[in-house]
Amino acid sequence: xxxxxxxxxxxxxxxxxxxxxxxxxxxxxxxxxxxxxxxxxxxxxxxxxxxxxxxxxxxxxxxxxxxxxxxxxxxxxxxxxxxxxxxxxxxxxxxxxxxxxxxxxxxxxxxxxxxxxxxxxxxxxxxxxxxxxxxxxxxxxxxxxxxxxxxxxxxxxxxxxxxxxxxxxxxxxxxxxxxxxxxxxxxxxxxxxxxxxxxxxxxxxxxxxxxxxxxxxxxxxxxxxxxxxxxxxxxxxxxxxxxxxxxxxxxxxxxxxxxxxxxxxxxxxxxxxxxxxxxxxxxxxxxxxxxxxxxxxxxxxxxxxxxxxxxxxxxxxxxxxxxxxxxxxxxxxxxxxxxxxxxxxxxxxxxxxxxxxxxxxxxxxxxxxxxxxxxxxxxxxxxxxxxxxxxxxxxxxxxxxxxx
Length: 404
Ligand SMILES: Nc1ncnc2c1ncn2[C@@H]1O[C@H](COP(=O)(O)OP(=O)(O)O)[C@@H](O)[C@H]1O
Ligand SMILES: [Mg+2]
Hints:
Blueprint: E1 7-12, H1 16-26, E2 31-36, H2 39-48, E3 53-57, H3 65-73, E4 83-87, H4 93-96, E5 105-109, H5 114-199, H6 208-239, E6 248-251, H7 252-269, E7 274-276, E8 283-286, H8 288-305, E9 311-318, E10 321-328, H9 335-340, H10 360-370, E11 374-379, E12 385-392, H11 399-403
Parallel strand pairs: 1-2, 1-3, 3-4, 4-5, 7-9
Antiparallel strand pairs: 6-8, 9-10, 10-12, 11-12
Bound molecules: adenosine-5'-diphosphate (ADP) and magnesium ion (MG).
The site of adenosine-5'-diphosphate has 19 residues, from α8 and α10.
């Protein structure tokens, strides 16, 4: 048995001499003995402490021992406490208290026989210690059952997460294969065409103008593959914290004009236009290459998922931060999707939509954060989406605080 708290004993008698005499008989170092001079005093102590045993004098002025026992029986907190009645009266005790059903009841007669008193008290104290030990064991069992339950829950969650990761890995592999295969196929077809021209002696197909166009086509396919591989490398650098940004003074206007011009051809091919709203010059200390990467991601998404509608880029300065908005008038994004699309490998749930790797927004948000900025989106399904890139214009401002 483990080390226990001392057992508490309550003795109730209106005569202080009796209390002292009884105390001397039952006290030892593993017990605490509490004295009450009346039933009322006893009740107050009973509500405050957890007693192993109450020894009640039957004859007391005011509330007598039986009345006190009745009250103890009627109270949830005290009904289990064993009671020993002490009386000078004789044998009628059994009869007088036969109504006391719950909890142990015993009797001592005056004059007290020291051995009988000690014997009875020892039995009740041993019972109490056993009861408390059992209770402790039950509590420990219950605790470990709850811990086990939590562990099982954690295990289930981990297993589900693992299965999800495995599914995503498989899907990811086939997506990467597909995304690489498309430009490779195009390149392969080009080489076959060129071989055919050579075989037929059709050297006209290789004049300066044709060669220029060929190289541009090849470049596009090669760039698409490089972008894909760079995205995957970025994600793994972000995951192990080795992605670094190299800030320098950047003027936004020039960079945005260039990016918009670069993507305008692609936009025109899908029947829409990208416009850059006029704005005041804004500059900041940023990694130009990375900011451009974010804007290109947002614009490519707007073209891809914007339903062929026009896209507008605008810039505002507020609270020491530059805010670049990329707004489309496409189908918008559902609230459930908004929660997920910034996670790696997560894409929208709409059917029939072109499928990417789901890395663009994750990378873009991480890049925004690496600059002390933010990437957020507002969208109303059916009415388009506006992605906002917030960047602090000087190093001390945090956009999270500026926009809070
Ligand atoms: N402008 C947009 N309009 C509607 N949905 C968008 C837009 N931009 C992104 N999304 C949704 O967010 C998802 C994740 O985008 P992203 O991380 O760039 O990955 P990917 O383009 O490879 O799917 C997309 O699959 C798409 O469902
Ligand atoms: Mg994308």
